[in-house]
Amino acid sequence: MNLLEVKNLKKSFGDLEVLKNISMEVGEGEVVSILGPSGSGKSTFLRCISMLETIDGGSLVYCGKQAVSEQDGKPVYVPKSELQEIRHSFGLVFQNFNLFPHYSVLKNITDAPIRVLKRDKAEVMKEAEALLKKMGLADKGSFYPYQLSGGQQQRVAIARALAMKPKMLFFDEPTSALDPELTAEILKVLKELAKEKMTMLIVTHEIGFARSVSDHVVFMDGGVIVEQGDPRDVIDNPSNERTRAFLKKMEQ
Amino acid sequence: MKLRKTAALLTAAFLLLTGIKAVIPVSADTERHTFTVGFDAEFPPYGYQDESGEYVGFDLSLADEVCKRRGWALNKVPIEWNSKDMELKTGAIDCIWNGFTINGRENDYTWTVPYVDNSQVAIVRADSDIQVLSDLFGKIVAVQTDSSALAAFTGEDAEESNIALAKTFRELRQVGDYNSAFMNLESGAVDVICMDIGVANYEIKARGGKFRMLDEHISSEEYGVGFLKGNTELRDEVQETLFEMLDDGAFARIAADWELTDCVCLTRESAAPAETPKEAESVDETEKNGTSLANICIQLLRGVGASLAIFFLTLLFALPLGLLIAFGRMSRFKPLSALVKLYISVVRGTPLMLQLLVVFFGPYYLFRVSTPPGYRFWAVIIGFTLNYAAYFAEIYRSGIQAVPVGQHEACAILGYSGTQKFFRIIFPQMTKNILPSVTNEVITLVKDTSLAFAISYTEMFTLAKQVAAAQATILPLFIAGVFYYVFNFIVAFVMERIEKKLSYFR
Predict the structure, then answer these.
(1) Looking at beta carbons, which residues of chain B come within 8 Å of A116?
(2) Is A231 left (phi over 0), alpha (psi -120 to 50) or beta?
(3) pLDDT at site B30
(4) Which of B255, B287, B319 is the last residue of a domain?
(5) Can you give the pLDDT at residue B91?
(6) Of A190, B8, B231, B295, which has the fewest beta carbons less than 10 angstroms from its beta carbon?
C-alpha cells in the first residue's frame, strides 16, 4: 500500500513557479531520498506535502485518504477536521530542529501526545523515556534544548516526531545545520529507523547515505523530477546530464 | 489671579472636538443638599492644604459658614485651574470660590458682589535696594503664568503706566507657581515677584522676614464668587447668606482670622460698613511650624495610596487589554487591524494629559452625560489603562513576532490548536522577549501617575506641590522624588527577579 501519493503537484510563489507538475509515490516501509541542487524545489516539495504550504495544483493522498483533490484544475482541500486527522499520519523533522526552548527534553517529546492526542500521561512518559534511550539520550530528559549539542537536539526532534506515532516521517535536510561528526550521529539513527522499516522521505545532500539507505532516489532540479529509480542506477549510473553534473559537483 | 487664556484654549479645543456649543446644564437640583466649591489648592490663604492635610483658607471658611447657614454639606474639590470652566459646565462643581478675580471676566460668569479688593504688589528680598516701582528699571520681574499680575503688565486692559513700567524691565519672567517664584527670588534668579496682596502677605509671613513688600501698588482688582453664567438662583442664595454674615459680623470675624481685614470689601447699599474687630486672633506662629519631615511624610502618605492605586489598577487592566489589542492589530481581518492601528496611533501620538481630559470631560461634551462624583478617579484609571494598553500592545506584538516561524511550524506539524499554540508555546517565549521593554513601561508608569493632576485627581505629586505651596518649602517635592525613586527601585528589583526566573531557557 502507498502511504503517500502525490499527483501533478504545482506550487508558485508569485510569478515564480517553484514546483512544476511533480508526481511521486512512497510505499509502506520504503525509504525515499530526494537529491538536488539548492533552489531545485525539494524543500518546498517537502513543505507542501507536510501542509506547511498550500499547493496551487494537483492532488495529495495519505494512507489512502484523500487530503487534496483536483477539481476543475483547482486543488480542493478536505475540511479542517479531516485534515487534522490526516496530519497525524506523518511527522516532520526540521533542518533547524525547532524544539520548544522553554520545555525540557522530556516535555518537548510528551507535550503533544498528551495535549493533542489526549493520551494517558504515564504511558506517554514511559514511551518517551524508551525513545530517549533509543536515541542515546537517556540521561538528558530534564535538560533544556540550549544545553544540548546540535546533534543531540536533532535526536530529540526525531524522538518528538516519533512520539506522535506517525505512519511516515519526513526529513528536511536533517543534517545541514550540523558539522560532520554530529551528522554521523543523525545518519546512524536514520539507518536504524530504516532497519525497523520506518517509512521515510528524506531531503538530503548526503549522497553516500542516500545510496546506502534508500530504496528509491529522486533527483530534482528546476522544479521537476529529472530522474528517479534505484539508488544504484540514479547515483552510480545517472542517465541525465543534469544529474551527472550535480553528482560530480558534490564529489568535489 | 490667573486669567482665562489657557482655560479658554482648552475649552475651545473641546468645543472643536465635539462640534457642539456648550449649553448650561439644567439645574434640576431644587432640593439642594450639597454645595461643591472648586478651588486651586495651591493658593493660600484663600484655599490650600494645612498641616493635617485639610483643605482650608479664607474662601473655604466663608463657604463653610454659608453652607452651615443654608443647611448644605460643603464639598471641597481642589481643581486644576486650567480646567475650571469645564468643571463648572459639567456640573462637577457649583462655583469657583478661590480668590477669583472679577476684572476682565465680568461677562464670563455670574458673579456675587466683590468681597475682596486685591491689589497687585511687588515683593523683593529684604536686603534689596529696590524701594519704589521705578527702581524696577533693568530688573528681572517674575509673575505667575496666567496671573492677574501678568495681566496688569501685558493684558488688554492694563494701565498705560504699567505697560510703560514693564518695558523698563530687563525681563518679565513667568513661573508656574509661587513656591518656585520664591525659590527664584531667594536664589537671586529674579529680583522681584509681582502678585496678589493677600497671597503676598501670607507668603512673606510664612517665609519669615526674608522678603518685604513695596508700599507702592501696581494695580488693584476685586475677587468674587463665580457661578456658571446664568445660574443667578444659586448666586442669589449664596450672596444673600454672605450679606447676612456681613450684617452679624461673621464675615469680618472670618476675614480677621485670615488676616485679610485690610482687603475685604463686601458691602451692600443697605448694609452698614463692615466692622473690623481689632482684637482678632492672629494665626498662631507655632501652627505654621508644620514643616518637619515626619509631618510632611504623613501628609504625603494619603497621596501615596492614590498613586499606588493608579499604578496597580492600570497594570491590572492594561496588561490583559494590551494583549487583546495586539491580537486586533495582528488580525487578518483588515477593518479590525486598521481600526486598532488607528487607535494605537492616536494614543501614542497625543499627550496622556490630553487623553485624561478627554476621558473625564468627554462624557459631558460628547454625550451630555453628567458624570457621578466618583468618576474622577475612574477617569484616571480609564485614561491610563487605554494609554498603557496601546503601548503594551505594541510590545506584545514585537514579542510575538520575535518568536521564530519554526515554532509555529513545529506546532502545526504536531497538531496543536491555535489556543494551545499561543498559551503553551508562543506566550512563554513572548514573555521572555518583552520583559526588558515591559520593565521600561512600568517604570515610566510609576512616574506618569503624577499626570493625574491634569484632571485634579490628588495623587502624591499633586499633594506634594500643594504642601510645598502651603508651607513655603521645597521639602515635600524632595520627598516626592525620593518616593518615586524608591518605588522604581522596587519595580526594577521585582522585574529583575522575574527575568532571572525566566532565564532557565534561551
Answers:
(1) 414-417, 420
(2) alpha
(3) 58
(4) B287
(5) 87
(6) B8
